[in-house]
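INTERNAL AUDIT FORM
Audit reference: QA-55
Scope: verify that the stored structure record matches its stored sequence.
Auditor: D.O.
Record contents follow.
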Amino acid sequence: LFRDFPFFPAYLGRSKAEGKERRAENGKKEGEKHWPKRRVSRMDLQLVQSDLLQVSFVGRNTLQLLPPGKRPTRKVAIGDNDGCVEVFGVKKGEITRVFKQQLGTKGEAISRLALGGKSGKKEQIYAAQGTTIRGVTKKGKEFFKLKTTLSETISSMYVEDNSIWTTGEYVFTKFEDGKDRFFALATDRIREMTVSHFMGLDERGVILSCQDRFLRMVIQDTFHHEKLIPGAAAALTWNQSAGGSTSAASVDEQATRLPGGQELLFGTDNGVIGQMMVNNTAFADGWIVPNVNKAGSITNMGVADLTKDGLNDVVVGRDDGLVEVYCFDVSPRDPQMNFKRSVGESIRSLEAGHVSMTEYDEIIVATYSGKVMSYSNDVPAEDEAGVGLAVEGTAAKEDDPLAKRERRKKRKDNSRKQLRALREEVDKLAEKLAEKKTRQLQTTDEVISTHVNFHVNQSIRLIPEEAAYAITIEIENALDSIVLQSDVQLNLLDVDDNLAIVCKSDVDARQDKTSKVLATYRCQDSVNRIQVKLRTFEGKQGNIKVYVIPRASPKTSQLLVFPIKPLSLHERVYNLAANTPMNTLKFTGKFSLLDVHSWLSMALPDVPAKTGDADTLQMCFQSTFLSTVVLTTSRKGEVSVKSDSVSSIAMVKEVITREAVNRKVQLNLSVDVNNDSIEHVLNLVRDRLTPLFQLSQRKKALDALSEIKMQVGKERREGVRARVGVCWEGGGTFLFTAS
């Protein structure tokens, strides 16, 4: 029975003779029990969350795991927005702080943390603060400081030996021995960077992910090749950890696909996970995991063999607080999610390794508010020497009852110590708070104005599938409410996991001529993150103002402004359908390429701020609502705009003429209207309206169906046999039959 049932371990289906033979082969005594090698399967992967530390709020990728020393476990280094770097470890279930070092002036945020040193053993900690790079030893002594000549804040950094690779918003730079060696200017905003050595290259190869959804290979100061991916990659990681490839493909098979290729994993801002093979000449596509559940943007990625099957599992952190693990038990080219947990706030850093346990890899996560926590297969229990032991239920090997009782006692003692330490810390904080309140009351009895600074993590993202924008707001403390004010017309949409109470106010046009929408979101629970979805109406240019009010005393507010462009529901694409009838708008005059590029950026989203070295720029956009397209071609003294929608042409024309008049630039205008485009757009509108019309027809039939159901139930209760049939026919016709 057990042999034919695949969910049970193989040893349960063995006969006594087979068991004796197997034990004899393994050199076991005849009377000793045989236990298989521990392996966590896809069905029993249960990760336990443990809180490790609380620091100030942190930025992205500011957590690193130091290499192991004498003990097999690793220490954790984290930098916060106050400018502090802290290193701690876990020993016998308790946090042991190694050092806490203030770098620079307090309040100078650490934007990136990286490990440096020799290629085999990176024990030095490098922190980027603005345009300055500082180095700290593993014991907390500052040994390096580099004030760069960069004009952009360092967002990505990689250190090896005496070389430092950095990126800002648009500029990639390499430093050697504290001096600039070379730099490169990207055509669009840089989201992430990773560095690796490729076969056939003397120089390290750099992979840049840009906002225009391209991965670009940079060798020294030259862009060599690029690859389009499903979204702008916000997280990149190499699969070079122990355990091999994430896929079950052999090395020979991967080499056949791309000779000398390395496996690169990426996560995009629209929630897509993908694999890419990279070498010094090309990119090759791998597997793709689409964002079917419409989860948040990916902020961090890592690899670790959590299931102990010899294949690395993919660990993902998202901005909506989800921590996910993808494994390859079903298919080597089809990763499946087998673990998901929400922490309630955005994931800012994610690493995997041995921190408190020696048997299993752990996932170390840092959230926006500064919480550092771990996810592991089992709860650690350690002996006196500090070596991790498997607790009850790990199925490693059966222990005697005394050992189990001793481990349970140690776990209880550790829990009591941690609880006692937390209570003492809370009491100290309460005393400090009461002391500050007393000082404030003794200062004056009058009402005084105060200015309280608090950091806001904000983002706005277009969701193409819903043709709507998602505004995400997150603060370090609890939110009281947010007030949304818009000078353009828009629709507020429902969010499933949004527990705030929405109150929309009517705007009197006679008293307030600027506001079109005014709404308040009042948070009920102690949440520090909220998401608002809205759909704009194209044609008008304006701003959305959001006032963020935290749950604190005294009451303060912070203003956020999000610009809305006339063609706000368009997204940039790279493939257009052939044989689409186009209308053409052309401008000529005495203007530069930079001028016309700035004009187009005021009308269309996702227009890069830099033009690069090209003499001609061509961009394609598609409406997420009606699927109409816009094609722009610009060069010095000439710009051409093509679209199948006359409305889109009119909106672009209005913006360009207004900006040209403001700058006193004379333009020559010509318009060519294609009559076939009108019928084409009307067909697109019909395709959009048809399912809505059918839905409204079904809704109208609900009352009739409810009435018939009630009548049938009444007749059945009266003993009358009744049968009702309902048939839906195309074109909105309902047929009802009753007998």
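Auditor finding: record pair retrieved intact. The chain has six helices and 47 strands.
Action required: none
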